[in-house]
Automatic annotation (TrEMBL):
Record remark: domains: Possesses an unusual extended V-shaped dimeric structure with each monomer consisting of three distinct domains arranged along a curved 'spinal' alpha-helix. The N-terminal catalytic domain specifically recognizes the glutamate moiety of the substrate. The second domain is the NADPH-binding domain, and the third C-terminal domain is responsible for dimerization.
Gene from which this protein is expressed: hemA
Residues forming the catalytic site: C50 (nucleophile)
Catalytic activity: (S)-4-amino-5-oxopentanoate + tRNA(Glu) + NADP(+) = L-glutamyl-tRNA(Glu) + NADPH + H(+)
Pathway listed: Porphyrin-containing compound metabolism; protoporphyrin-IX biosynthesis; 5-aminolevulinate from L-glutamyl-tRNA(Glu): step 1/2
Subunit structure: Homodimer.
Name of this protein: Glutamyl-tRNA reductase
Family membership: Belongs to the glutamyl-tRNA reductase family.
Length: 425
C-alpha cells in the first residue's frame, strides 16, 4: 500500500477551475462518507482551501483505487465530466506524494511562502478524515509526520518569522516601534474591505481591545465589526474619532485624502500632544503626506511597508534550502519507517514458519534418538544445529528483503516471499 495525491492548486489551475472542484465543509463530510462506503479498504484525506483541492488516498494492488478511480470519484462529487477534471489534475504517488504533502504543510508551496494558516488547514483535513473513519494506518502515519516536518521548518528556519504581507508588516513590525502594547489603545480602522479585515485580524491577535471601524457604507462597517465583536461608527464622525485615536489605519478606496494637514492642524489642540501612529495601506493614499511634519505623529505609507515586505521575502528565500533539507530528511525517515514496518510481519511469519518446521522435525526425530540410546546432550546439539541451519538459510533472503524495504520495495520481495512460502496476508 502506498500514498497517492491527486489535486490542483494555484500553481497549475486557474481560479475558475479551482472554484468548480472546491469542497465546502458539508461537502467534505459527504464526500468522505461516500468514499468510505465505496472503498471500505481505502483511505482518504481531503484538503480543500481557496488555493488548492487535493485528495490524499491509498492505493494497493488488492483493490482498485488508482488515479482514474479517484478522478472519477472527484468528478462525480461535483457533477463534472471526468475528462474535464483529469486535464487539470496533478498526480503524485509514493515518495513524491509524501514529499509534496510535507512541502504543503510547511507552507513552502503556498502563494505566500511561510504563511501559517495552511498547517492548521492540513490538520483540520486530517481530523475530519479521522472522525469520519476515512483515514487509516497509512494516512495516520503520513499526516502525523507532515505535522512534525512542518513544526521543524517553523522552529529551525526563519521562513515563518519574516512577514511578507503589508498588514502583517504594519502590525507586527511598525506598531511595536511606537507602542509597547495595544491594550487600552484606541484603534481606528478606516475602510471595511479585504485589507481592512486582514489588518483587523492582525491587530486583534496583537492584543488590540478598543477598536472602531468606520466605512462610508455603515452597513459594511457594522457587518465587519460584528464579525469581530468590536465597535463601529458612522463615517461622518471621522474627525471626532481622530481626536480619540492612538492608532489609525487607512484601507479605503477614496480618491482624495480622508485626513488632510489642515484638518489635523485644527484637531491637534484637542489631542494634547498624544502620540498618533498612522498606517496608510491604501492606494491612492488615505492620508496627506504632509501629516508627517507634525511632532508626535508617525506616518507610514504603503511604499514604506512594501519595501519591508520585499526585504522579508528575500530573507525567506535565503532560508528555502534549509527548509527543503528538512523536508527531504523527514520524507526519507518516514518512508524508511513505513517500508520496514511493512517487512516486519513478513519476517516474523517467515521465522515462525521455519521454527514450526524445526519443531515438527524434532518431534519426529527425538523419539527415535531416545530409542537408540541418544543422550540429552546430543539432542540439544541437534536442536542448536537446526537453529544455525535456519539462520543461515534465512539470512540472505531477509537481508535482501531489508535492503529492498530501504529502497521502497522496488523489487517486490515482500510479495514474492509471501507467495513462495505461502505466508498469507
Amino acid at each position: 500500500m502506498k500514498l497517492q495525491m491527486i489535486g490542483c492548486s494555484h500553481h497549475d489551475a486557474a481560479v475558475e477551475f479551482r472554484e468548480r472542484v472546491a469542497f465546502s465543509g458539508n461537502q467534505i463530510d459527504s464526500a468522505l462518507d461516500e468514499f468510505r462506503r465505496r472503498y471500505p479498504k481505502g483511505e482518504l484525506v481531503l484538503l480543500s482551501t481557496c488555493n488548492r483541492t487535493e485528495l490524499y488516498t491509498t492505493t494497493d494492488e488488492e483493490f482498485e483505487l488508482d488515479r482514474e478511480a479517484v478522478i472519477r470519484f472527484l468528478a462525480e462529487q461535483h457533477h463534472l465530466p471526468a475528462d474535464d477534471v483529469v486535464e487539470q489534475m496533478i498526480y503524485r504517488s509514493g515518495h513524491d506524494a509524501v514529499e509534496h504533502l510535507f512541502t504543503v504543510a510547511s507552507s513552502l508551496d503556498s502563494m505566500v511562502i511561510g504563511e501559517s494558516q495552511i498547517l492548521s488547514q492540513v490538520k483540520q483535513a486530517y481530523d475530519l478524515a479521522r472522525q469520519s473513519g476515512s483515514a487509516g494506518p497509512l494516512t495516520h502515519a503520513v499526516f502525523q509526520a507532515a505535522n512534525h516536518a512542518a513544526k521543524r521548518v517553523q522552529n529551525e528556519t526563519e521562513i515563518h518569522r519574516r512577514r511578507v504581507s503589508v498588514p502583517s508588516v504594519a502590525v507586527g513590525e511598525v506598531v511595536p516601534e511606537v507602542f509597547d502594547s495595544l491594550v487600552g489603545k484606541r484603534v481606528l480602522i478606516c475602510g471595511a474591505g479585504e485589507m481592512g479585515e486582514e489588518t483587523l485580524r492582525y491587530l486583534i491577535q496583537a492584543g488590540a481591545d478598543d477598536v472602531v471601524v468606520l466605512n462610508r457604507s455603515l452597513e459594511r462597517a457594522k457587518t465587519l465589526a460584528e464579525s469581530f465583536s468590536i465597535q463601529y461608527a458612522p463615517w461622518e464622525t471621522l474627525l471626532d474619532q481622530v481626536v480619540q485615536a492612538d492608532l489609525m489605519v487607512g484601507t479605503t478606496a477614496a480618491t482624495e485624502p480622508i485626513l488632510t494637514y489642515q484638518q489635523y492642524e485644527k484637531l491637534r489642540p484637542q489631542r494634547r500632544d498624544r502620540v498618533l501612529l498612522v498606517l496608510d495601506l491604501a492606494v491612492p493614499r488615505d492620508f496627506d503626506a504632509a501629516l508627517d511634519e507634525f511632532p508626535n505623529l508617525y506616518l507610514y505609507q504603503i511604499d514604506d511597508l512594501q519595501a519591508a515586505c520585499q526585504r522579508n521575502r528575500h530573507e525567506r528565500e535565503k532560508e528555502w534550502p534549509k527548509a527543503q533539507r528538512i523536508i527531504t530528511e523527514e520524507t526519507q525517515r518516514l518512508l524508511v519507517n513505513l517500508n520496514h514496518r511493512a517487512t516486519g510481519p513478513v519476517i516474523k511469519r517467515l521465522r515462525e514458519h521455519a521454527q514450526q518446521i524445526k519443531h515438527d522435525e524434532l518431534e519426529r526425530l527425538l523419539p527415535k534418538l531416545r530409542a537408540l540410546g541418544g543422550e540429552p546432550a546430543m539432542q540439544k546439539e541437534i536442536e542448536k544445529s537446526l537453529d544455525r541451519l535456519i539462520n543461515k538459510l534465512l539470512h540472505p533472503p531477509l537481508s535482501s528483503l531489508k535492503e529492498d524495504a530501504a529502497e521502497g520495495h522496488q523489487k517486490g520481495l515482500v510479495k514474492a516471499l509471501r507467495e513462495l512460502f505461502r505466508l498469507g496476508d
